[in-house]
Amino acid sequence: MQRLIDNKLIYGQLMEVAEPHLVERYNLALTGFGLAPVELERFRIDMAGFSPEVAGALGDELYLDPNGVNRRFIILSPEQIGLPVVNTAFSNTEELLYQFFEKNAKAIYALTIKDVLYGEIEDSVFEVNDIDDLLSIEQVEFRVQTASNLLGKAGELQLLIEKLLKQPDAWRDNELLNTMVEYARVTGDIRTNTLLPQEVVFRQKTYWTSHFGGVYVFIDDGQVTVICDPATKGFRKSRPWQVSYIDRSDHDGVYRFLAESGRVDPPRGSWIERSQLLQERALMLVTWLAVNNDLRVDLSRVGPQWAANWAARHAGIVEREGSLPLINWVHRQVANWSNVDMREISPQRRFLISRANPEHADFYLVNRLISDYLQFDYMTRFVFNKPAFYRDYENWPENYRDHVVKQIRDNYLADKKALRRRLYK
Q: How many CB atoms lie within 10 A of CB 18?
Protein backbone atom coordinates (compact mmCIF):
# COMPACT_ATOMS: atom_id res chain seq x y z
CA MET A 1 0.00 0.00 0.00
CA GLN A 2 2.93 2.34 0.58
CA ARG A 3 3.72 2.22 -3.15
CA LEU A 4 0.19 3.51 -3.86
CA ILE A 5 0.64 6.33 -1.36
CA ASP A 6 4.10 7.30 -2.65
CA ASN A 7 2.78 7.47 -6.24
CA LYS A 8 -0.40 9.33 -5.20
CA LEU A 9 -2.73 6.53 -6.32
CA ILE A 10 -4.37 6.79 -2.92
CA TYR A 11 -4.71 9.86 -0.68
CA GLY A 12 -3.02 11.82 -3.46
CA GLN A 13 -5.32 14.85 -3.76
CA LEU A 14 -6.21 15.60 -0.17
CA MET A 15 -5.99 18.97 1.58
CA GLU A 16 -3.44 19.40 4.33
CA VAL A 17 -4.65 20.74 7.66
CA ALA A 18 -1.75 22.19 9.65
CA GLU A 19 -2.92 25.56 11.04
CA PRO A 20 -3.49 25.20 14.82
CA HIS A 21 -6.92 26.85 14.71
CA LEU A 22 -8.12 24.44 11.99
CA VAL A 23 -6.76 21.43 13.87
CA GLU A 24 -8.61 22.67 16.95
CA ARG A 25 -11.84 23.11 14.99
CA TYR A 26 -11.55 19.61 13.55
CA ASN A 27 -11.17 18.19 17.05
CA LEU A 28 -14.25 20.14 18.16
CA ALA A 29 -16.19 18.45 15.35
CA LEU A 30 -14.89 15.03 16.45
CA THR A 31 -16.04 15.81 19.97
CA GLY A 32 -19.42 16.79 18.57
CA PHE A 33 -19.70 13.28 17.12
CA GLY A 34 -18.81 11.78 20.50
CA LEU A 35 -15.31 10.84 19.34
CA ALA A 36 -12.02 11.54 21.08
CA PRO A 37 -9.91 14.45 19.81
CA VAL A 38 -6.60 13.49 18.20
CA GLU A 39 -3.14 14.71 19.11
CA LEU A 40 -1.98 15.44 15.58
CA GLU A 41 -0.31 18.64 14.48
CA ARG A 42 -1.08 18.07 10.80
CA PHE A 43 -3.21 15.72 8.73
CA ARG A 44 -5.00 15.55 5.37
CA ILE A 45 -8.72 15.56 4.61
CA ASP A 46 -10.99 14.78 1.65
CA MET A 47 -14.19 16.54 0.55
CA ALA A 48 -16.16 15.00 3.42
CA GLY A 49 -13.45 15.73 5.97
CA PHE A 50 -12.21 12.15 6.21
CA SER A 51 -8.53 11.93 7.15
CA PRO A 52 -6.39 8.78 6.83
CA GLU A 53 -4.14 10.09 9.60
CA VAL A 54 -7.07 10.73 11.94
CA ALA A 55 -8.48 7.28 11.10
CA GLY A 56 -5.13 5.80 12.08
CA ALA A 57 -5.02 7.77 15.34
CA LEU A 58 -8.56 6.70 16.23
CA GLY A 59 -8.01 3.13 15.03
CA ASP A 60 -11.22 3.37 13.02
CA GLU A 61 -11.39 3.71 9.21
CA LEU A 62 -15.16 4.24 9.49
CA TYR A 63 -15.19 7.03 12.05
CA LEU A 64 -17.17 9.21 9.63
CA ASP A 65 -19.29 6.36 8.26
CA PRO A 66 -19.98 4.01 11.18
CA ASN A 67 -23.04 2.23 9.77
CA GLY A 68 -22.53 2.81 6.05
CA VAL A 69 -25.52 5.21 6.03
CA ASN A 70 -26.09 8.76 7.32
CA ARG A 71 -22.55 9.70 6.33
CA ARG A 72 -20.85 12.23 8.59
CA PHE A 73 -18.94 15.23 7.25
CA ILE A 74 -16.56 17.88 8.59
CA ILE A 75 -16.07 21.09 6.61
CA LEU A 76 -13.14 23.35 7.48
CA SER A 77 -12.90 25.23 4.19
CA PRO A 78 -14.96 25.88 1.04
CA GLU A 79 -11.89 24.62 -0.86
CA GLN A 80 -12.91 21.07 0.03
CA ILE A 81 -15.35 21.21 -2.90
CA GLY A 82 -12.49 20.34 -5.27
CA LEU A 83 -11.36 17.25 -3.34
CA PRO A 84 -12.31 13.60 -3.89
CA VAL A 85 -14.22 11.45 -1.40
CA VAL A 86 -11.94 8.63 -0.23
CA ASN A 87 -14.05 6.34 1.94
CA THR A 88 -17.75 5.95 1.24
CA ALA A 89 -20.36 3.20 1.15
CA PHE A 90 -22.35 4.98 -1.59
CA SER A 91 -21.00 6.02 -4.98
CA ASN A 92 -23.09 9.21 -5.08
CA THR A 93 -21.78 10.65 -1.79
CA GLU A 94 -19.30 12.81 -3.69
CA GLU A 95 -22.04 14.15 -5.97
CA LEU A 96 -24.32 14.97 -3.02
CA LEU A 97 -21.51 16.76 -1.19
CA TYR A 98 -20.61 18.70 -4.31
CA GLN A 99 -24.23 19.86 -4.69
CA PHE A 100 -24.30 20.95 -1.04
CA PHE A 101 -21.08 22.93 -1.42
CA GLU A 102 -22.21 24.50 -4.69
CA LYS A 103 -25.74 25.44 -3.59
CA ASN A 104 -24.59 26.89 -0.25
CA ALA A 105 -21.25 28.42 -1.24
CA LYS A 106 -21.82 31.82 0.41
CA ALA A 107 -22.96 30.35 3.72
CA ILE A 108 -20.10 27.83 3.81
CA TYR A 109 -17.58 30.58 3.06
CA ALA A 110 -18.95 32.81 5.82
CA LEU A 111 -19.26 30.07 8.41
CA THR A 112 -15.81 28.58 7.88
CA ILE A 113 -14.20 31.97 8.49
CA LYS A 114 -15.33 31.68 12.10
CA ASP A 115 -16.10 28.02 12.74
CA VAL A 116 -16.26 24.41 11.56
CA LEU A 117 -19.34 22.83 9.98
CA TYR A 118 -20.11 19.24 10.77
CA GLY A 119 -23.06 16.91 10.69
CA GLU A 120 -24.68 14.01 8.84
CA ILE A 121 -26.11 13.35 5.42
CA GLU A 122 -29.30 12.01 6.93
CA ASP A 123 -31.74 9.68 5.19
CA SER A 124 -34.73 7.61 6.21
CA VAL A 125 -32.84 4.60 7.63
CA PHE A 126 -30.26 4.15 10.36
CA GLU A 127 -29.07 0.69 9.35
CA VAL A 128 -29.20 -1.33 6.13
CA ASN A 129 -30.46 -4.88 6.71
CA ASP A 130 -32.02 -5.68 3.34
CA ILE A 131 -32.69 -4.25 -0.10
CA ASP A 132 -35.90 -2.59 1.07
CA ASP A 133 -33.84 -0.40 3.41
CA LEU A 134 -31.82 0.81 0.41
CA LEU A 135 -34.91 1.42 -1.72
CA SER A 136 -36.52 3.49 1.01
CA ILE A 137 -33.77 6.12 0.69
CA GLU A 138 -35.42 8.51 -1.76
CA GLN A 139 -33.80 11.73 -0.58
CA VAL A 140 -31.18 12.91 1.90
CA GLU A 141 -30.95 15.95 4.16
CA PHE A 142 -27.77 17.65 5.34
CA ARG A 143 -28.07 18.11 9.10
CA VAL A 144 -25.52 20.83 9.84
CA GLN A 145 -24.03 22.00 13.13
CA THR A 146 -21.22 24.33 14.16
CA ALA A 147 -18.95 23.96 17.17
CA SER A 148 -19.80 27.41 18.59
CA ASN A 149 -23.50 27.17 17.69
CA LEU A 150 -23.16 29.83 15.01
CA LEU A 151 -26.07 28.35 13.09
CA GLY A 152 -28.29 28.31 16.12
CA LYS A 153 -27.49 31.93 16.97
CA ALA A 154 -27.94 33.00 13.35
CA GLY A 155 -31.33 31.32 13.28
CA GLU A 156 -32.40 32.97 16.52
CA LEU A 157 -31.12 36.35 15.31
CA GLN A 158 -33.16 35.96 12.11
CA LEU A 159 -36.30 35.36 14.19
CA LEU A 160 -35.57 38.41 16.35
CA ILE A 161 -35.06 40.58 13.25
CA GLU A 162 -38.42 39.44 11.88
CA LYS A 163 -40.06 40.17 15.24
CA LEU A 164 -38.52 43.64 15.31
CA LEU A 165 -39.78 44.39 11.79
CA LYS A 166 -43.27 42.99 12.26
CA GLN A 167 -44.19 44.03 15.82
CA PRO A 168 -44.70 47.81 16.17
CA ASP A 169 -43.49 48.07 19.78
CA ALA A 170 -40.66 45.52 19.60
CA TRP A 171 -38.03 48.30 19.38
CA ARG A 172 -38.97 49.25 22.98
CA ASP A 173 -37.92 45.78 24.23
CA ASN A 174 -34.40 46.39 25.59
CA GLU A 175 -33.85 42.71 26.32
CA LEU A 176 -34.63 41.83 22.71
CA LEU A 177 -32.33 44.54 21.38
CA ASN A 178 -29.49 43.55 23.71
CA THR A 179 -29.84 39.92 22.66
CA MET A 180 -29.70 40.94 19.01
CA VAL A 181 -26.51 42.92 19.62
CA GLU A 182 -24.97 40.00 21.51
CA TYR A 183 -25.78 37.55 18.71
CA ALA A 184 -24.62 39.98 16.00
CA ARG A 185 -21.22 40.26 17.66
CA VAL A 186 -20.80 36.55 16.98
CA THR A 187 -22.61 36.13 13.66
CA GLY A 188 -21.99 39.48 11.97
CA ASP A 189 -24.68 41.12 9.85
CA ILE A 190 -26.68 38.14 8.59
CA ARG A 191 -28.73 40.41 6.31
CA THR A 192 -25.76 40.76 3.94
CA ASN A 193 -23.65 37.77 4.96
CA THR A 194 -25.92 34.75 5.23
CA LEU A 195 -24.87 31.99 7.61
CA LEU A 196 -27.75 29.62 7.08
CA PRO A 197 -27.40 26.97 4.31
CA GLN A 198 -30.48 27.39 2.12
CA GLU A 199 -30.51 24.09 0.22
CA VAL A 200 -30.02 20.99 2.34
CA VAL A 201 -32.38 18.39 0.80
CA PHE A 202 -31.33 16.44 -2.31
CA ARG A 203 -32.89 13.58 -4.26
CA GLN A 204 -31.22 10.18 -4.21
CA LYS A 205 -30.28 9.22 -7.76
CA THR A 206 -28.78 6.13 -9.37
CA TYR A 207 -25.99 4.69 -7.22
CA TRP A 208 -23.78 1.79 -6.16
CA THR A 209 -23.39 0.77 -2.55
CA SER A 210 -20.90 -1.52 -0.86
CA HIS A 211 -23.64 -3.17 1.21
CA PHE A 212 -24.24 -6.89 0.58
CA GLY A 213 -21.05 -7.21 -1.45
CA GLY A 214 -22.08 -4.49 -3.89
CA VAL A 215 -25.52 -3.39 -5.12
CA TYR A 216 -26.30 -1.25 -8.16
CA VAL A 217 -29.57 0.70 -8.11
CA PHE A 218 -30.61 2.26 -11.43
CA ILE A 219 -33.55 4.66 -11.30
CA ASP A 220 -35.66 5.42 -14.38
CA ASP A 221 -39.08 7.04 -14.68
CA GLY A 222 -41.37 4.93 -12.54
CA GLN A 223 -39.01 1.95 -12.60
CA VAL A 224 -36.08 0.81 -10.46
CA THR A 225 -33.58 -1.87 -11.48
CA VAL A 226 -31.39 -3.59 -8.90
CA ILE A 227 -28.30 -5.59 -9.87
CA CYS A 228 -26.68 -7.63 -7.12
CA ASP A 229 -26.04 -11.08 -5.66
CA PRO A 230 -29.35 -13.01 -5.53
CA ALA A 231 -28.44 -14.13 -2.00
CA THR A 232 -29.00 -10.55 -0.83
CA LYS A 233 -31.90 -10.35 1.61
CA GLY A 234 -34.96 -8.99 -0.17
CA PHE A 235 -33.84 -9.93 -3.69
CA ARG A 236 -36.98 -10.19 -5.89
CA LYS A 237 -39.10 -9.70 -2.76
CA SER A 238 -38.78 -6.02 -1.92
CA ARG A 239 -41.30 -3.96 -3.94
CA PRO A 240 -41.65 -6.44 -6.83
CA TRP A 241 -44.34 -4.22 -8.43
CA GLN A 242 -41.84 -1.40 -8.81
CA VAL A 243 -38.40 -3.06 -8.96
CA SER A 244 -36.76 -5.31 -11.53
CA TYR A 245 -34.02 -7.57 -10.20
CA ILE A 246 -31.04 -8.91 -12.14
CA ASP A 247 -28.55 -11.43 -10.83
CA ARG A 248 -25.14 -9.81 -11.30
CA SER A 249 -23.79 -13.14 -12.63
CA ASP A 250 -26.43 -13.04 -15.39
CA HIS A 251 -24.21 -11.41 -18.02
CA ASP A 252 -26.91 -11.56 -20.67
CA GLY A 253 -29.55 -9.96 -18.43
CA VAL A 254 -27.23 -7.19 -17.22
CA TYR A 255 -25.99 -6.35 -20.71
CA ARG A 256 -29.49 -6.42 -22.18
CA PHE A 257 -30.76 -4.01 -19.51
CA LEU A 258 -27.89 -1.58 -20.13
CA ALA A 259 -28.28 -1.77 -23.91
CA GLU A 260 -32.07 -1.38 -23.92
CA SER A 261 -31.89 1.59 -21.54
CA GLY A 262 -29.24 3.29 -23.71
CA ARG A 263 -26.56 3.09 -21.05
CA VAL A 264 -24.01 1.08 -23.01
CA ASP A 265 -22.37 1.53 -26.42
CA PRO A 266 -21.96 -1.71 -28.40
CA PRO A 267 -18.89 -2.02 -30.68
CA ARG A 268 -19.04 0.53 -33.51
CA GLY A 269 -16.29 1.92 -35.65
CA SER A 270 -17.31 5.49 -34.74
CA TRP A 271 -15.86 5.16 -31.25
CA ILE A 272 -13.58 2.11 -31.46
CA GLU A 273 -11.19 3.61 -33.99
CA ARG A 274 -11.11 6.97 -32.24
CA SER A 275 -10.84 5.94 -28.58
CA GLN A 276 -8.23 3.13 -28.74
CA LEU A 277 -10.02 1.59 -25.76
CA LEU A 278 -9.94 -1.91 -27.23
CA GLN A 279 -6.23 -1.61 -28.05
CA GLU A 280 -5.58 -0.63 -24.45
CA ARG A 281 -7.68 -3.52 -23.19
CA ALA A 282 -5.82 -5.94 -25.47
CA LEU A 283 -2.48 -4.80 -24.03
CA MET A 284 -3.71 -5.05 -20.44
CA LEU A 285 -5.22 -8.47 -21.21
CA VAL A 286 -1.96 -9.89 -22.60
CA THR A 287 -0.05 -8.49 -19.62
CA TRP A 288 -2.57 -10.15 -17.31
CA LEU A 289 -2.26 -13.48 -19.12
CA ALA A 290 1.54 -13.26 -18.99
CA VAL A 291 1.54 -12.67 -15.23
CA ASN A 292 -0.88 -15.52 -14.61
CA ASN A 293 1.29 -17.80 -16.75
CA ASP A 294 4.52 -16.77 -15.01
CA LEU A 295 4.42 -14.72 -11.80
CA ARG A 296 8.04 -13.63 -12.36
CA VAL A 297 7.64 -12.51 -15.96
CA ASP A 298 9.68 -9.45 -16.96
CA LEU A 299 7.26 -6.54 -17.51
CA SER A 300 9.87 -3.85 -18.09
CA ARG A 301 9.27 -3.77 -21.86
CA VAL A 302 5.49 -4.06 -21.99
CA GLY A 303 4.06 -2.42 -25.11
CA PRO A 304 2.21 -3.31 -28.32
CA GLN A 305 5.18 -5.12 -29.87
CA TRP A 306 5.95 -6.99 -26.65
CA ALA A 307 2.29 -8.06 -26.42
CA ALA A 308 2.25 -9.27 -30.05
CA ASN A 309 5.42 -11.31 -29.48
CA TRP A 310 4.13 -12.82 -26.24
CA ALA A 311 0.78 -13.73 -27.82
CA ALA A 312 2.55 -15.41 -30.77
CA ARG A 313 4.77 -17.46 -28.44
CA HIS A 314 1.82 -18.47 -26.27
CA ALA A 315 -0.87 -18.95 -28.93
CA GLY A 316 -2.38 -21.89 -27.07
CA ILE A 317 -3.03 -19.83 -23.93
CA VAL A 318 -4.44 -16.95 -25.99
CA GLU A 319 -6.81 -19.22 -27.96
CA ARG A 320 -8.07 -21.06 -24.87
CA GLU A 321 -8.78 -17.82 -23.01
CA GLY A 322 -10.50 -16.42 -26.11
CA SER A 323 -10.69 -12.68 -25.37
CA LEU A 324 -7.83 -11.45 -27.54
CA PRO A 325 -9.07 -13.22 -30.71
CA LEU A 326 -12.47 -11.55 -30.18
CA ILE A 327 -10.92 -8.08 -29.83
CA ASN A 328 -8.88 -8.63 -32.99
CA TRP A 329 -11.95 -9.88 -34.87
CA VAL A 330 -14.00 -6.83 -33.83
CA HIS A 331 -11.22 -4.55 -35.06
CA ARG A 332 -11.29 -6.25 -38.46
CA GLN A 333 -15.07 -5.99 -38.64
CA VAL A 334 -15.26 -2.28 -37.89
CA ALA A 335 -12.30 -1.57 -40.18
CA ASN A 336 -14.35 -3.12 -43.00
CA TRP A 337 -17.45 -1.12 -41.99
CA SER A 338 -19.18 -4.32 -40.92
CA ASN A 339 -21.63 -4.47 -38.04
CA VAL A 340 -21.06 -6.68 -35.00
CA ASP A 341 -24.18 -8.66 -34.08
CA MET A 342 -24.06 -8.86 -30.28
CA ARG A 343 -26.39 -11.86 -30.34
CA GLU A 344 -23.52 -13.83 -31.83
CA ILE A 345 -21.16 -12.82 -29.00
CA SER A 346 -21.01 -14.88 -25.82
CA PRO A 347 -22.73 -12.91 -22.99
CA GLN A 348 -19.59 -13.34 -20.87
CA ARG A 349 -17.56 -11.39 -23.46
CA ARG A 350 -19.94 -8.60 -24.47
CA PHE A 351 -18.56 -6.10 -21.95
CA LEU A 352 -15.07 -6.73 -23.33
CA ILE A 353 -15.95 -4.97 -26.60
CA SER A 354 -18.36 -2.35 -25.24
CA ARG A 355 -18.19 0.86 -23.26
CA ALA A 356 -20.55 3.03 -21.23
CA ASN A 357 -22.52 5.54 -23.29
CA PRO A 358 -20.75 8.85 -22.56
CA GLU A 359 -23.95 10.78 -23.29
CA HIS A 360 -25.95 9.03 -20.56
CA ALA A 361 -26.25 10.55 -17.09
CA ASP A 362 -25.19 7.22 -15.55
CA PHE A 363 -21.92 7.15 -17.51
CA TYR A 364 -19.64 6.87 -14.47
CA LEU A 365 -21.75 4.24 -12.74
CA VAL A 366 -22.03 2.09 -15.86
CA ASN A 367 -18.26 2.17 -16.32
CA ARG A 368 -17.98 1.02 -12.73
CA LEU A 369 -20.34 -1.87 -13.45
CA ILE A 370 -18.47 -2.82 -16.64
CA SER A 371 -15.20 -2.91 -14.68
CA ASP A 372 -16.71 -5.58 -12.41
CA TYR A 373 -16.69 -7.92 -15.40
CA LEU A 374 -13.19 -7.01 -16.66
CA GLN A 375 -10.81 -7.67 -13.79
CA PHE A 376 -7.73 -7.40 -16.02
CA ASP A 377 -8.66 -3.84 -17.09
CA TYR A 378 -6.89 -2.13 -14.20
CA MET A 379 -7.22 1.33 -15.78
CA THR A 380 -11.03 1.28 -15.89
CA ARG A 381 -11.15 -0.19 -12.40
CA PHE A 382 -8.86 2.52 -11.03
CA VAL A 383 -10.66 5.39 -12.78
CA PHE A 384 -14.23 4.28 -11.97
CA ASN A 385 -14.03 1.59 -9.30
CA LYS A 386 -11.20 2.31 -6.87
CA PRO A 387 -12.44 -0.01 -4.06
CA ALA A 388 -12.21 -2.97 -6.48
CA PHE A 389 -8.80 -1.80 -7.69
CA TYR A 390 -7.42 -1.64 -4.15
CA ARG A 391 -8.75 -5.13 -3.39
CA ASP A 392 -7.13 -6.46 -6.56
CA TYR A 393 -3.84 -4.79 -5.70
CA GLU A 394 -3.53 -6.70 -2.44
CA ASN A 395 -3.37 -10.02 -4.32
CA TRP A 396 -0.99 -9.07 -7.13
CA PRO A 397 2.68 -10.14 -7.33
CA GLU A 398 5.23 -7.38 -6.85
CA ASN A 399 6.26 -7.09 -10.50
CA TYR A 400 2.65 -6.61 -11.60
CA ARG A 401 1.99 -4.08 -8.82
CA ASP A 402 4.99 -2.08 -9.92
CA HIS A 403 3.97 -2.18 -13.59
CA VAL A 404 0.36 -1.15 -12.98
CA VAL A 405 1.29 1.69 -10.64
CA LYS A 406 3.73 3.10 -13.20
CA GLN A 407 1.16 2.85 -16.01
CA ILE A 408 -1.51 4.67 -14.03
CA ARG A 409 0.92 7.27 -12.73
CA ASP A 410 2.38 8.06 -16.16
CA ASN A 411 -0.74 7.71 -18.32
CA TYR A 412 -3.61 8.77 -16.07
CA LEU A 413 -2.42 10.92 -13.19
CA ALA A 414 -0.34 13.03 -15.59
CA ASP A 415 -3.57 14.24 -17.28
CA LYS A 416 -6.76 12.65 -16.00
CA LYS A 417 -9.18 14.54 -18.21
CA ALA A 418 -7.21 13.74 -21.35
CA LEU A 419 -7.18 9.98 -20.69
CA ARG A 420 -10.87 9.86 -19.77
CA ARG A 421 -11.71 11.85 -22.89
CA ARG A 422 -9.56 9.64 -25.12
CA LEU A 423 -10.60 6.21 -23.85
CA TYR A 424 -14.13 6.62 -22.57
CA LYS A 425 -15.70 9.55 -24.43
A: 11
| % helix, strand, coil for the chain, step of 5 | 50, 10, 35
Residue 340 makes CB contacts below 8 A (sequence gap 6+) with 266, 267, 268, 330, 333, 334, 353
Q: In angstroms, what CA-CA distances link 254 with 114, 131, 225, 425?
A: 50, 18, 10, 22
Instruction: Return the closest-CA partner of residue 371 out of 225, 220, 264, 286.
Output: 264
Structure confidence by residue, pLDDT tens digits, 53-69: 999 999 999 999 998 99
Say what the pTM is: 0.87
DSSP run (H or E) holding 227:
strand 223-228
Q: Is the pLDDT of residue 289 over 90?
A: yes
Domain range list for the chain:
2-148+196-203, 206-249, 265-424
Query: In DSSP terms, which residues pair with 245 in a beta bridge?
Result: 226
- pLDDT tens-digit profile of 227-258? 999 999 999 999 898 899 999 999 999 999 99
Query: CB within 8 A of 194, min separation 6: which ones?
Result: 106, 107, 110
Instruction: Using the Cα atoms of residue 250, residue 251, residue 254 and residue 256 in order, give the sign of their dihedral.
Output: negative
Contacts by 323-326, CB closer than 8 A, 24 or more apart:
323/285, 323/349, 323/352, 324/282, 324/285, 324/286, 324/289, 326/352, 326/353
Q: Give the 3-state secondary structure of 250-297.
A: CHHHHHHHHHHCCCEECCCHHHHHHHCHHHHHHHHHHHHHHHHHCCCC
Cα-Cα-Cα-Cα dihedral sign, residues 292, 293, 297, 303: negative
Across the strands, what pairs with 246?
A: 227
**Pairwise CA distance, residues 261 & 209, whole Å:** 21
